[in-house]
Amino acid sequence: MLAMNYRGPFRVRAEQKPEPEILHPEDAIVRVLRSCICGSDLHLYHGLVPDTRVGSTFGHEFIGIVETVGSGVQKLKTGDKVLVPFNIACGKCAFCKQELFGNCHESNPEATAVGGIYGYSHTAGGFDGGQAEYVRVPYADVGPVVIPEDMHPDDAVLLTDVVPTGYQAAEMGGIKKGDTVVVFGAGPVGIMAAKCAWLFGAGRVIIIDHLEYRLDFARNYAQCEAYNFRSMEDPVLFLKKTTDWFGADVCIDAVGGDAAGNAMQTITGRKMMLQAGSATALHWAINSVKKGGIVSIVGVYGPTDNLIPIGNVVNKGITIRANQASVKRLLPRLIEHIRSGYIDPKAIISHRIPLEEVADAYHMFSAKLDNCIKPILIPPSARQ
Amino acid sequence: MDLEKKFAHIKGWGVDADPENEPTYPIKKYTGDDHQRTNWERPPQQPVTVEILHSNERPGVSAVFGTSCPPEGLSGNIRRYAFKHSESSYGHWLPLLLADRVNVVEGIIDDLKKGHVPNIFAEKGWKAAWKYNRAGLIKKIALTALATTAVVMLYKSARSKSR
Ligand SMILES: [Zn+2]
Ligand SMILES: [Zn+2]
């Protein structure tokens, strides 16, 4: 089968690989219909995530058709068209029972801090991902959800990560009616977080980024205020000023370790890799939230240390909430929201690219060429 | 002011507003199960058919795991060393980052052994760069060429001086 193959930082190619097999009774094999490249794939692509081995296949956002199921699978059948949440969760462990599906204890031997994730380095379990024609899906009765008849496949694929992650970012912010919410990062997740902040009753939604085309997109799509931090002397000062010198009620970090905007963070975090990525967005979030406010983090950082102003967290009495999204927990509500027309996920897809051209797709998304917001890959077997 | 009216133009405004939405998600659904430690019915164990490195913060491997790219060669040895250290230690993460870099070179050697000369330009997606960022790409190539020429000249002049 054709699959994306990682060869090193900034180098990937599409290549023939053996088809995946059932390795556990609760496995299924899914034939991929489409998969996305995610902003957090760029952390892998840039070589920022430890234990990203040459030869692995990325892709944690995909939908497809069930080809085969293992002997222990009861609910899922061959032929089902499914969306597959990015987290691999057993449904049985203490954390899964608490609906913390992103924190499953039975899906990742390599690390205890994070659960298994498709195509997300060996630190997240060493699973091959969905930027391929076929993918192995463990715990097939737990994660996958049959796509409702009336749902567009492009909406379905964005329900595997982008929409629930944006939604959970807003949820973790504990937004109260009338709150001012600031989202750092106008990538797909940031845009979705801004959109969802309104559903929680935000009174003002502000998004901060450095790329004009993304800010324009966010302004239209999420009906929010959008500002370019490159045009400000100091984003923290700007945000204080625009909130009556008070600070925002809720700040959301939707960037993670690839953040631009602070030379010291960029050099130590992204160039020299002395930190688990640059923590610029988190830094700004902590410093521009009000005292007693809430900072919600969904941006991805590596497992090592970061330079963040922890003293200000203490002095300001900030609550920090962070996690990988528990996709499965949120799906019923989000499917309802799409039906009601509150969220239109597919509108953020900007590029459809054949899997064969995966290297160009990564470069375009990484270098932000051709006003790329969200690229989607279509494998050859899904195009016939 | 009536907020509902003010935000009438935003579809679904406030539908998930919940005054009880304190930022306490994991606690809200707390089950107490984790106080019973490992008292859950574990899924069947996936047979270990390839070498799986596991965190030393757990006794064995999880019930399922990925089998992509088992540790091999020099990078594999460095990774095995890394997994002797806990996830909260630099002894774990720094060797892994080093192993990743070594692995890149191994990947190229492996390609060559299989008679495949990797097309680095294609792998870097320079076709897209040529299409959407031609000026940037040309600048990058020119700078690389310039730097290479400078290095070669320095090397030549150093050699001629030493003679
Ligand atoms: Zn993602
Ligand atoms: Zn679990």
Automatic annotation (TrEMBL), chain A:
InterPro entries per the UniProt record, alphabetical: ADH-like_C, ADH-like_N, ADH_Zn_CS, GroES-like_sf, NAD(P)-bd_dom_sf
UniProt feature coiled coil, ranges: none
Keyword Zinc: yes
Alcohol dehydrogenase-like N-terminal domain location: 25-144
Record keywords: Metal-binding, Oxidoreductase, Zinc
Pfam family, one: ADH_N
UniProt xrefs under PROSITE patterns: ADH_ZINC (PS00059)
Superkingdom, taxonomy of origin: Bacteria
Family in the record: Belongs to the zinc-containing alcohol dehydrogenase family.
Protein name as it appears in the record: Glutathione-dependent formaldehyde dehydrogenase
From TrEMBL, chain B:
Superkingdom to which the source organism belongs: Bacteria
Protein's recorded name: Uncharacterized protein
Annotated source species: Chitinophaga agri
